[in-house]
Amino acid sequence: MAFVADPSAFHLSLWKKQLAHVPNSVWEHAGLKTLILADNELSEVSEQIGRLKNLRMLDLGHNHLTSVPDALGDLDGLTDFLYLHDNQLTSLPSSLAQLKKLRYLNISENAFATLPEAVCGLENLIELRASDNQLTRLPDCIGRLPQLRELHLRNNQLTSLPESIGELLQLRQLDLRGNPLTSLPAAMATLPRLEKLDLRWVTTLMAPAWISALEARGCVVYK
Q1: What is the 3-state secondary structure (H, E, C) of the chain?
Q2: pLDDT tens-place string over residues 151-160
Q3: So what's the architecture of 1-111 in CATH?
Q4: What does pTM read for this prediction?
Q5: How would CATH label the architecture of 124-223?
């Protein structure tokens, strides 16, 4: 099936078109800034996606992807959003670390057991959503996201967090709901901008003493 679009168009939505494959004609629209392929039946995406150098937003959510192409790393104009949620991903290509301008990444509702280290290369990331996976650990490199303001980790299998979480000096919101946490690093107490810490549905954690100090300086802690 071919989709005819104005070659000068900046936005293309193929949302919920029951696509099993992305039509080759899509890759011909090099001027695209927004491409929405969500809510289809995609099990793969061609490496040709790397031709869309002007993309600022890409939505591949709600499909059946078990991997994404290395060529995603060629989309160095991707600044606004990359949606990969609700697929069957267990890893991401190392090339993803080349997306130095990306500000929002959603990899929730997949099958990640560890957060891919490529994510740590996204130095301008403001919001990271990795809820509803099978994460048992976060890599130490999580501290290399200097602009990160929101980190959403609800419903994973985390029992602890690395000390490097304390290096996220711009972090405002940290969602840890529904994890089997048994400890939290003391470095969290020094996060200067933390406004919201969500620990609801965590039944395995004895709240550390420094939690009250966080609350005293205005951080809202949900327990």
Answers
A1: CCCCCCCCCCEEECCCCCCCCCCHHHHHCCCCCEEECCCCCCCCCCHHHHHCCCCCEEECCCCCCCCCCHHHHHCCCCCCEEECCCCCCCCCCHHHHHCCCCCEEECCCCCCCECCHHHHHCCCCCEEECCCCCCCECCHHHHHCCCCCEEECCCCCCCCCCHHHHHCCCCCEEECCCCCCCCCCHHHHHCCCCCEEECCCCCCCCCCCHHHHHHHCCCEEEC
A2: 999 999 999 9
A3: Alpha-Beta Horseshoe (3.80)
A4: 0.95
A5: Alpha-Beta Horseshoe (3.80)
